[in-house]
Amino acid sequence: MKRDIITSAIGILVLTLFCGILYPLVITGVSQVAFPGNADGQLVHVNGKLVGSQEIGQNFGLQVYKNGKPEMDNGVPVTNPDPRYFQTRPSATAPPDNAAATTFSNLGPNSVATEQEISSNIQAYISLNGKYYPGGLTAAKVPVDAANTSASGIDPDISVRNADIQAHRIATVRHLPLSTVMRLVSKYTGGRGLGFSGEPGVNVFELNLALDRMTGVHA
Amino acid sequence: MTFLGWLTIVLFCVVLTLLAIPLGRYMAAVYTGQPTFLDPVFRTPERLFYRIMRVDPERGQDWKQYAKSLIIFSLAGWLLLYFILRTQTLWNWTGLNPEGFHSAPWNVTFNTTSSFLTNTNWQYYGGETTMSYFSQMAGLTVQNFLSAGVGIAVAVALIRGIIGRSGKSIGNFWQDLIRTVLYVLMPISFVVALILVFQGSIQNFSHYLNFNGPTGLANSIAMGPVASQEAIKELGTNGGGFFNTNSAHPFENPTGFTNFVEMLTVLVIPAGLVFMYGRMTGSRRQGYAIFATMLVMFFGAVCVAYIAEAHGSPAQHAAGLHTQVVAGSTGGNMEGKEQRFGIAGSALFDVVTTVTSCGAVNSAIESFTGIGGAVPMANLSASEVIFGGVGTGLYSILLYVLLAVFIGGLMVGRTPEYLGKKIEAREIKLVAIGLLITPLAALFSTALATASSAGRASISAAAAGGPQGFSETFYAYLSQANNNGSAFAAYGGFVQPNAGNLGSHGITFTDLLGGFTMLFARYAPILFALAVAGSLAGKRVSPAGLGTMRTDNPTFVVLLIGVIVLVGALTFFPALLLGPIVQGLTGHLYQ
Amino acid sequence: MSLVVASIGPADVFGLVASVIVCIYLLYALLRGEKF
């Protein structure tokens, strides 16, 4: 009994040092040397200022002002999507695409609340993109990833179909030929892992930065 | 459903098998003291550990001594982890608490500590708003290694009991633990962690980033030593994410490739242990039979989940969405799923994680369709023997094997015997109780939590009006009892108004009930597994005769699957009916 | 403990107690084994 207690006490401490201090330190050291950009989060700077990470979805919206003051909803800024930029998927974090407090929506498959959330996402998507899309948009034409909340709340990707629909709006608002925007979308469309694992996604952040570089327009 | 989706599933099964076979051979060498190719690296540290800990690795322990060492070590682990988590600001001087988080309240910490100690990694908290880097590293990552080590040690001890022909020794707990950490967990974690960083996972000690995005909106990104923890989280079937959204978070699981790697990492040791078992018992066909049992049930579960999720949910259809696959869109139920994983990558991951005691998720289980969400529940109801957790899967399925041998023996009118040893009343009593502890713990806790208003307080507001509320509760205790850790995540146990834990409070009833369920349903079955090992160790082996029932042919595989399904179904069908089955059978939407 | 019992409806208390008693009886029967 006493042997076990002594061995346990010493053991837990040395194993904590080995597995909990030494191991992460070594991994950090090797990572920072071998893959420094990745280890720090694939950060992007524009004009010397940090604007985001290539792996994290961002809210490309504009602050809504009421009576000259920024409108807040329970301490979270109220925003409207900026029509000049591609928009990410719906997010359940507060504010949207908050990468310091990620959360699932946890909306169940059979609940009225889910149906209402999906409907409101559909309405928002149609009112933003419908008038630019030839033939207009109905709920049936909206791609699922644009109406359903992402898992992490900071999904960097949207589906190719979602990007193609939004491209019509971008082309008109930014006065660019549609083919140019579509080409840009293809450029930032990632493939599947090893050619089969996962789905292609269009990286909204990188795409929007590229748009800004191309048109010289910044928010 | 797409061709590439099905291809991913099939390739996964193939690659898993191809990786598990050599790993099984390697692990057999590790636990039988034979030379391995990593000896030059780890021989000296191993001896150093024994010296510092005052361990004599040659001293064999009988089952009671083995159990005592295990329990006392676990207690030490619990106490140290609780201390670290409750003193978060004490460690600010290390620079590993850059956001200055205070400690979470005692009840949530009780639940978290019990959770990580038992390999569950049930998290009522979100990592990036609650835990300092020091807590994640020196507290949680450590238990990720050690709880995996304890699980594997018990499996190896049971194997020694089954094959042991002389004396009552089932090994030395300390030797099994140290060898597992050094020779198995550490090398694989090291490689996987670097693969993750290579693909985009982060590994740093920076402050969280605060900046303005291109449209001028204020933004924050959490940082941390993620990849190192992520690797052992998957490898040790732990499942506790660095961030709240677990493997859906781009920093934990950046690409379709890492998704595939992470899924393989979760199952590679449980699968490898089965091949190791075949080698150690001298009958490879035993290993193949058990592996076939697991693979068949696994593949069935994946098929059901994928088809269900590809079909879409009633809520989507009511809102007018079309959920078929079209050019450029995955279709299906994308609620709570990431674009880069799609439907197949999410369904496969969530099945992988719930057939074992991992519990990490790359998509929200709560948002799965009724049938899609029933698959994780059914996996848990099988008591996690379809591959199962590291160690726990193997010793649990071995108990089922003994039960199947007993039932088979009754059916053919012969004394049940397994690998030459008679299975007598004593063994069967231990097996029966051992197998029923976890299901009964899950059901009783669910009953308590559903019946009492204190327990119902944890049900999320959106789900309280219908079967989803019951599903949330049932899943919570099913998951904690099976030491899985995944959740219908709207079920709450921790209210945290601000990041950093000031002003936060736990929900005591839920936290404590869950904590005790996890501890009881982890250690009681361990004790029974060790007792079975002790009972079988040193038993006389009689050579197989003409009448011996074979345990390595397809007939036995069918019998084994039948027993597992029957026990799970009889125990859980009424409960499943009240939750996910109702949701799957109706298109009705609940308030 | 009383706090917990107080928050459970009487019908549920009966159900819980009854199932515990049945489980204990079955456990007893299992352990006594052949002597039944």
**% residues in beta strands of chain A:** 5-15%
Helix content of chain A: 40-55%
State the shape of chain A.
globular
Give the overall shape of chain C, derived from the CA principal axes. Answer: rod-shaped
Explain what the structure shows.
The complex is a heterotrimer of chains A (219), B (591) and C (36). Chain A is of the alpha+beta class. The radius of gyration of chain A is 22 Å and the shape is globular. Helix content of chain A is 43%, strand content 14%. Chain A has a 3-stranded antiparallel sheet. A two-stranded antiparallel ribbon of chain A has the order 1-2. Chain B is built from 19 helices and 6 strands. Chain B has one domain (3-585). Chain B is globular. Chain B starts with a helix and ends in a 6-residue tail after the last helix. Chain B has 591 residues and is mainly alpha-helical. Chain C is rod-shaped, with a radius of gyration of 14 Å. Helix content of chain C is 78%, strand content 0%. Chains in contact: A-B, B-C. The B-C interface holds B 425, 429, 432-433, 440, 444, 447-448, 451-454, 509 and C 3-4, 7-9, 12-13, 15-16, 19-20, 23, 27, 30-31, 33-34.
